Amino acid sequence: MSLFDLSDEVAIVIGGTGALGGAIAEALASAGARVVVGGRNKERGEQRVAEIQKAGGKAVFLPVNASERQSLQTLDAETTKAFAPATVLVNAAGGNDPKVTVTPENPFDRLSTQALLENLDLNLLGGAILPSQEIGRGFCGRKRGSIINIASVSAHIPLSRVASYSAAKAAVVNLTKFLGREWAPFNVRVNSITPGFFPAEQNRRLLFNEDGSPSARATQILNHTAMHRFGEAHELGGAAIFLASSRASGFVTGTDIRVDGGFLSQTL
């Protein structure tokens, strides 16, 4: 069996309806995994499933609200019915809410408590903690599993304007290290991937002008990125396949893999 053959794996990708989560779902399926595309948007989820199936992969869409335990428990049970008990969990849900973006008109000290809590819920509680609890419980019981959390370069160096998002993603990296140690005795590996800047729906307006040219913020980002370009969604797939494969990364846990084009490798 190939080092990167995932034909014996069942992967749940929460946030698989998004651009980056969807690309990871496609990558895992291309390596042979049976994939559950989990998310709130049924139309996007079924579209992603259709693309996976068209390429010869196996996938189903299952709705989930990652901030609700019952929804996660249902997802876990339905995954078993559709394929078999899950062996891989990718926590790819998240994003920054404009209501908590720091601007001159919306300074940090005026950010509302409710908006902050919602953003922390999206990126930390629902984005990593609750799914790891509810799906990871079965992993520990079966003594087999890989959890892959999606972090951000802002977890390591906080970016301007996105204070609560940066704080939440920093907590995700910390949680990854904690669970990597905590669940190692149960043969459950927990790692994270730190993407650099990948244009997607949530950040496209910040990165590009209406004519398609890079915005001022995008120019700053590109000048700080060693490879001087944005990432392409499919480029996250290799890291995800590596971490999902117990043969390829069986001795890897509690670590973070950066797929950032060298953004975090330089300061000036």
Task: Give the helices and strands, then pairings.
Blueprint: E1 10-14, H1 19-30, E2 34-39, H2 42-54, E3 58-63, H3 69-82, E4 88-91, H4 113-142, E5 145-150, H5 163-182, E6 188-195, H6 204-207, H7 216-224, H8 237-244, H9 246-249, E7 256-259
| Spatial order of strands in the largest sheet | 3-2-1-4-5-6-7
CATH superfamily of the largest domain: NAD(P)-binding Rossmann-like Domain
Largest sheet: 7 strands, parallel
Helix content: 40-55%
Give me the secondary-structure category.
Answer: alpha/beta
Shape: globular
Low-pLDDT windows of residues:
none
Please provide the ordered H/E string of secondary-structure elements: EHEHEHEHEHEHHHHE
- Computed Rg: 18 Å
Based on DSSP secondary structure assignment, what is the total number of beta strands? 7
CATH fold type of the largest domain? Rossmann fold
Give the distance, in angstroms, between the N- and C-terminal Cα atoms. Answer: 45 Å
